[in-house]
Amino acid sequence: MALRLPIRTSLLLLGLLMTGLAQVPVPASAPRGFWALPENLTVVEGAAAELWCGVSAPGSTVQWAKDGLLLGPDPRIPSFPRYRLQGDPTKGEFHLHIEACDLSDDAGYECQVSRSETGPELVSPRVILSILVPPKVLQLTPEAGSTVTWVAGQEYLVSCVSGDAKPAPDITFLLSGQTISDISANVNEGSQEKLFTTEATARVTPQSSDNGQLLVCEGSSPALDTPIKASITMNVLFPPGPPVIEWPGLDEGHARAGQNLELLCMARGGNPLATLQWLKNGQPVSTAWGTEHTQAVARSMLVMIVRPEDHGARLSCEAYNSVSTDIQERGVTLQVTFPPSAITILGSASQSENKNVTLSCITKSSRPRVLLRWWLGWRQLLSTEETVIDGLHGGYISMSNLTFLARREDNGLTLTCEAFSEAFTKETFKKSLALNVKYPAQKLWIEGPPEGQRLRAGTRVRLVCLAIGGNPDPSLTWYKDSRTVTEPRPPQEPRRVQLGNLEKSGSTFSRELVLISGPSDNQAKFTCKAGQLSASTQLVVQFPPTNVTILANASALRPGDALNLTCVSVSSNPPVNLSWDKEGERLEGVAATPRSAPFKGSAAARSVLLRMSSRDHGHRVTCRAHSTELRETVSAFYRLNVLYPPEFLGEQVLMVTAVEQGEALLPVSVSANPAPEAFNWTFRGYRLSPAGGPRHRILSGGALQLWNVTRADDGLYQLHCQNSEGTAEALVRLDVHYAPIIRALQDPTEVNIGGSVDIVCTVDANPILPEMFNWERLGEEEEDQSLDDMEKISKGSTGRLRIHHAKLTQAGAYQCIVDNGVAPPARGLVRLVVRFAPHVEHPSPLTKVAAAGDSTSSATLHCRARGVPNIVFTWTKNGVPLDLQDPRYTEHTYHQSGVHSSLLTIANVSAAQDYALFTCTATNPLGSDHTDIQLVSISRPDPPLGLKVVSMTPYSVGLEWKPGFDGGLPQSFQVRYEALGTPGFLYMNVLPPQATTFTLTGLQPSTRYRVWLLASNALGDSGIADKGSQISVTTPGLDQPSGEPDYQLPTEQPAGISEKTEAGSEEDRVRNEYEESQWTGDRDTRSSMVSTTDVEPYYHSMRDFSPQLLPTLEEVSYPRGVTGLKEENMAFPGHVYDELERLYAPSGAWGPLYDEVPMGSCDLYWPEDRYEDARGIYDQVAGDLDPMEPDALPFELRGQLV
After folding, report:
1. What is the pLDDT of residue 351?
2. Is the dihedral angle over the CA atoms 186, 189, 194, 196 positive or is it negative?
C-alpha cells in the first residue's frame, strides 16, 4: 500500500484538475479486493466528473450502478454517451468518467465486481455525485435595465426572482451601493426536481440623493464564481429649492423711470428642475425660463422698461415643479423716481409794444417735486405766484405765473420756463417761447417796366413790391384792378402768374409778381398794399385776335343749298385784316360791321356766300385774321356738313374669290351723310340677319364676313344701304373655289380583250381647269405604271382615259387624280377588268397525282384557271362526265378575282376504278379550256428538270434545278460528279432533302467536270438517262475572275411536310389539302396521296403542286390557312380581276367606292423545259421496280401496282 500511495496521489491531483474538487485516496482500511474506492463528489453543471474504482483482481468483470441501475461492463457504456470507463483494466483501473455533467447525473453510484475464479463478488460503498446548477437569470420587478420614476420619501416594493438553481441562491439588494436590510426572501421548488428558485422582496424609500443611482439585485451561489446581477436606474422626483432674485445695485426696489431693468431669478435643485414665472401685482408677465442640468439650476430673466406707473408695483418670482406641494415665491416692491414728462406755458407771447404779457407755466407729475424759474434771454424774471398739487403715480404738479411789459427791443428774445430738482441734477427740463413784439412798416414802393412801354402778348413781366421795417413782417398783397392777385393753376392751363413768397433781407421785405402778359393785362392797374401803405403801375399790351369765330346762317345743308358764313375777330391790339379760303381755294368776302371789343382792343368782321354739293361734305372753310404789325395770323375753320343719300364709290369691289371652308370678306365702299342706318344683304332672295348667324356677320362698316364657306354660298349678293336722305344698292359676286370631288367613276370598268373602252371620271370642282385631270396606273413594277399606249381626254368637268385594243397586261387598278389648285386633290380608284376566255393552268403535257389504290386512301385533284367573268368547272374520267352525286367524289370550288379553283376529292381510291385520266374543263361566256390529270400509283420519282449552273469559283459550282414528279412519296436529291480523265465517281447528298439549289465544293481550278443529279424516294431513284439531269462544266483558273451567270433565277425554298395528327371531316381534309397547296409556276411535278388507315397517319402535302396565288376568300377564313405563299412567275398575269359588285360580289364586300385594291405583278412566261414524253398512262409496273425486300415499304404506301 505504501508503494501505491504516490500513484494514488497523482491520480488524486489529476481529478482535482479535471473536476475542481478533491478525491481522497483509499485509506489503508479499504475493503478487501479494492485498492481505490469512490468518494462523494460535487461538481458544477457542465464540468467533468470522475469516480475512482481500483480492483485488486484485474481479470474480474467490473461495472458501475447508478441509483441501482447497472451501466454494463462495456467501457464505452453505449446507453450513456457522456459516460465511459477510464483507466487501464489490466491494472484494475475502472474509473467512471462523466463529461459535461448535468442534473440527471445527480445520483448514488456503486462500483460492482462480479464473481470470478480469482475472487468473490465485490460492491463498493455507495457514493453521492452532487451536481451544482447555477442560476442563469434574475427576474427583477420593475424590469431590469429600465428606468423607474419614484418620488423622494415614498416607499416602493421591489421583487427579484432567481432562475432554477441548485442549491437555492442567496439574493441581496444594493441601493446606491448600500445594502438594503429590509428584505424578505422565500425559497420555492424549481421547474425540475432538485432545482430551487429564490424570491426576495425589498422595501425601498428613495431620497433625492438617489436620483440617477442604481438599485441592484445580486444572486450568489456555490455554483457561481461571481454573483449575477440585475439592476434598474432610479429617477427620483423631488421639489426645487426657493427662488432667489438678483437685484442690480445696492438699493433693492429702487428704480428710475425709463431704466432698462433686468432681474435674474434662480432656483437650484429639483427633479425635474424648477418651472419659473414672473408676476407683477399678481399677474404673470413672463413665463420663459431656462435650465442647466449639469448645475441643476433653473433661471428666468425679467427684462422691463420702468415706467412712472410702475411705482409701488410688486414683482415676484415663483418656483415649482410636478412634485412640489407648495409654490415657493420671492418678491420685491418698486420705488420709481421720475421727472415731469412735459412742461406747458399757457398764454400768448405775441403782444403790441408797451403792453403787458401774462403767462403761466405748468409741469406734469414728477417724483420728487420740482421748482420753476423764468428766463427772458439771459435775464431771469421773477414769478408772481407758485403752486404745488398732487399728481399721478404718487408724484407732484408744479405751477408758476408771470406778468411783464413788452418792449420793441425785446422782440425775438427767448422766454423760458425751467424746472429743476436735486433728484435730477444731471438733467434740465425747459419750455421756451419766442417773444413777438408787434410794430408797423416804414416805407413801400414797386419796381418794374416803365409806364407806357408796349409789351407783346406772351412777354414775361416782373414786378417787385418792397417795404422797410415792421413786425410782424408786413404781408405784401398784390391787386389787379382792385382784385387780389392769386395764382390759379388749373391742370390743363399753362402757368401765367407766379406770385412769390415774402422775402426778407435785413429790415427790407419784398414780394415778386411774375406774369406772362396777355390781352386782359392791357391798360390794367397793378397795386401793392402793406397795411395802410400802397403803390401802383399800369401795363400796355399788344395782342393778336383773342378769338376768331365763324357764324353760319344754316346748320342742315343739302346739295344745292346756299350758305352764308360770317367771320368775327373779337378783339386785337392793333386791328387785323380778315380773309377766306376753302380747302386752299381763296374766296372773296364782304366786310361787315364790327362789334365792340373787350380788353380795350379792336374788333373786325367779314362774310362769304357758298353753294353746296355732296362733294363739299367734310370740306373746311377757313377764315384768317392777320396782324401786319405783329406779323401773326389767327385762323378758324368751319367744316361743311352736307346731308346726302348713300353713293357707292369707284373702288367698290364687285367680285370676291374665296376657298371652300375658308373665310370671305365682301367689302363695302360707300359714302353717305349721315352714315347709313343699315346695311342689308340679300342672297338668292333671302335676307341675311343683321345680328349675324352661325357662318356670317355684318361688320360695323357694312362689310359681310363669311366663314366655313361652302360651294352653296357661291353667287350674287345684293347690298342695300339706307340713311335718312335716301338709299343705294350694289351687287357683289362671291366665287367659291373648292377642291375637286369625284362624282362619277364607274368601278369596275369592263372590256373584252382586244376591245376599246373609256374610263370616265366626272368631278365637281371650281375652278374648272383644262389640265386638272391626271391618271396613274397602280402597280409594283415601274413598267406597269406606263400609260403611253392610252389616250387622255379632258373636257370641262369630265376626264377620260381611253384604252384601244385592251390587253391583259392593262388590267388592274387605275387612279384618277384631279387637282384644280385647291387642296386636296381628288383621287378615285377604278379597276379595269379585261374579260377573257378561261385558260386552265397546265404547264406540262400531263399532270400526275399518285395515291395508293387499296381502297383506303383518298386523292385530291387540283384544277385552277383564269378567266373573267366567273368560270364553271366540269370533270370527266376517261372522257365520261363524272357523276358528282357519287359519295366517293366531292368537289369544292373557289373564286377569287380572276382566279378560280376546283378541288376534286376521290375517297377510297381503287386501282381498278380510279387509276384513270381525269379531265377538268373551265367554261365562261367567252369560251372554255381544259387540262388532264392522271391518277396513278406511287412510283419512283422522275428525273429533275433544267439542271444549270448559277455560280462558279475555282473550287465550287452553284447548281439549280427544278424537281420532277416525286412519284407520290417524299423525294431527295443526290449529286454525282466526276473529273474527266480521273477514274471513279463522287457523290454528295443535297440537304435539306427538298432543296432545289446546291453548291458543289471541293473542286479543283481549271478542271472539266461532268455532273449528274439524281432524285430518289422510298421506291428507288430516277436514273441518269435524262439529259436534263446532267451537265458538263469547267472550273475557272485562279487567275480568272469568279462570278455568276447573268441569267440566274430566284432560288426556291423547298416546301415542308405537314403531319396530320387527327382525322377530321372530309370537308376539313379537302380544305386543308387546298390550303397547304403552293404553285411552282412552271412545273406540276408532285402528287397528293392521303392514307386513311390507322397504321401510320402520314400526310404528304401538295405544296409543290398547286399554283402560287393570293389566298381566296374561302381560304383565308379557315383557321389553318396557307401562311407562306410566295409570288412567282405565272403563265398568266397576276392582276386582280374582280367581278362587278352587282353581279358577283356580296353587299359591302368592296367598302368605299374609291378604295385602293391590291395588285399583283406577274409576267407572261412559259417554261422552255418540257417532258420528252408522257411515259404512258401508267407509271412503271412492278416488274420495272428495283429489287427490294417485300416489307421494305409500309403497306399503306405500296398501293395496288398494275
Report:
1. 84
2. negative
**Amino acid at position 229, single letter:** K
Give the residue among 412, 472, 464 at the shortest CA–CA distance from 439: 472
Beta strand segments in 410-555, E:
414-420, 429-434, 436-438, 443-447, 454-456, 460-468, 477-480, 483-484, 497-499, 503-505, 508-516, 525-530, 533-538, 540-542, 548-552
Give the DSSP letter of residue 154: -
d(CA 951, CA 1049): 11
Strands 503-505, 508-516: pairing is: antiparallel
pLDDT computed for residue 92 by the predictor: 87
**Using CA atoms, how far apart are residues 895 and 1144, in angstroms rounded to an integer?**
10
d(CA 830, CA 812): 8
CA atoms within 13 A on the CB side of 795: 4
Q: Which three cell numbers stand for residue 945?
A: 428538270
Q: What is the distance between the alpha carbons of residues 690 and 711, in angstroms, rounded to a whole number?
A: 22
Residue closest to 959 by CA, chosen among 986, 999, 990, 1009: 999
Dihedral, 705, 708, 711, 715 alpha carbons, nearest 10: -10
- Whole-number Cα distances in Å, 72 to 76, 85, 1153: 9, 10, 111
Beta bridge partners of 460: 516
In sequence order, what E strands does 60-123 have? 62-66, 69-70, 83-86, 95-98, 107-113, 122-123
Give residues with Cβ within 8 angstroms of 667, minimum separation 6.
Answer: 652, 653, 656, 703
Name the pTM for this structure. 0.39
Return d(Cα 18, Cα 871) in angstroms, integer: 115
In whole angstroms, what is the distance from residue 832 CA to residue 753 CA?
Answer: 11
Closest CA to 323 of 105, 71, 150: 150
Residue 385, number of CB atoms within 10 A of its CB: 10
* CA pair distance 214, 220, nearest whole angstrom: 19
Per-residue pLDDT, 927 = 93
Q: Cβ atoms within 10 A of the Cβ of 432, count?
A: 13
Element (H, E) at 759: strand 757-766
Q: How far apart are alpha carbons 669 and 649 in whole angstroms?
A: 6
**Residue 826 to residue 820: CA distance in whole angstroms:** 9
Q: Look at the alpha carbons of 183, 189, 190, 193 in this order and tell me if their dihedral is positive or negative.
A: positive
Interatomic CA distance for residues 839 and 1164, integer angstroms:
13
Using alpha carbons only, what angle is made at residue 526 by residues 523 and 527, rounded to the nearest 5 degrees? Answer: 145
How far apart are alpha carbons 793 and 787 in whole angstroms?
A: 13
Residue 443 identity (one-letter amino acid) = K
Which pLDDT value is given to residue 897? 77
Where the chain has pLDDT below 70, the residues are 1-32, 58, 118, 488-494, 780-784, 843-846, 1025-1028, 1041-1202
DSSP string, 1097-1127: --EE--TTTSPP-PPPHHHHTSTT-------
Assign 1043 to helix, strand or coil.
strand
Among 202, 211, 142, 132, CA closest to 172: 202
Q: Are strands 872-877 and 917-924 parallel, antiparallel or unpaired?
A: antiparallel
- The tens digit of pLDDT for each residue in 573-625 reads 888 898 999 888 888 888 877 777 888 888 889 999 888 888 888 899 999 99
CA atoms of 466 and 483, how far apart (whole Å): 20
3-state secondary structure 1164-1184: ECCCCCCCCCCCCCCCCCHHH
Which amino acid makes up residue 532? Q
Helix (H) / strand (E) containing 8: helix 5-19
User: CA nearest 276: which of 241, 234, 310, 304?
Assistant: 241
- In three-state secondary structure terms, 180 is coil
- C-alpha–C-alpha distance, residues 1031 and 998, integer Å: 14
